[in-house]
Design a protein that fits this description.
Keywords: Membrane, Transmembrane, Transmembrane helix
Number of domains: 1
Low-confidence stretches: none
Structural class: mainly alpha
Shape: elongated
Helix content: 55-70%
Strand content: under 5%
Number of strands: 2
Distance between the termini: 46 Å
Order of helices and strands: HHHEEHHH
Strand order of the largest sheet: 1-2
Oligomer: single chain
Length: 128
């Protein structure tokens, strides 16, 4: 794998660094920065399928960046975010945003990073 291919997956390195930082008791600022890096990577840069609903009811399988963004088609760019904001069926949201195991893992990383950021801010406040 070349450097460009490795740069595509920098968020996994940040996730591993976040786990190592939590286990070593790193500073709060380091934990917050790494957590936000992991969340932003999963939401906007993780290479996934688009998953937007096509006109015939199928799901788009073109490449996209991030679990929240669509592919290069203008109609698909914000369709996933709109699905989460507008009222619709929960099954439609899960099929569009998480069509494969890779997207589900990306969502797991994003939620874990978000929980880590919240915990990194709250734990020092509670423990004093």
């Amino acid at each position: 794998m070349n450097m460009r291919g490795m740069w595509t997956y920098w968020g996994y390195i940040a996730a591993a660094a976040l786990i190592a930082a939590w286990s070593s008791g790193a500073a709060t600022a380091v934990l917050v920065v790494l957590s936000l890096a992991v969340v932003s990577y999963a939401a906007f840069q993780l290479p996934v399928w688009c998953g937007a609903v096509n006109r015939n009811g199928t799901y788009c399988r073109r490449n996209a960046s991030g679990i929240l963004m669509g592919c290069g088609l203008r109609q698909h760019r914000w369709q996933k975010i709109k699905l989460m904001v507008l009222r619709s069926k929960a099954g439609d949201i899960s099929r569009a945003v998480f069509p494969t195991a890779k997207e589900k893992f990306g969502a797991f990383i994003a939620v874990g990073g978000l929980a880590s950021a919240v915990a990194a801010v709250i734990v020092p406040v509670v423990t004093g």
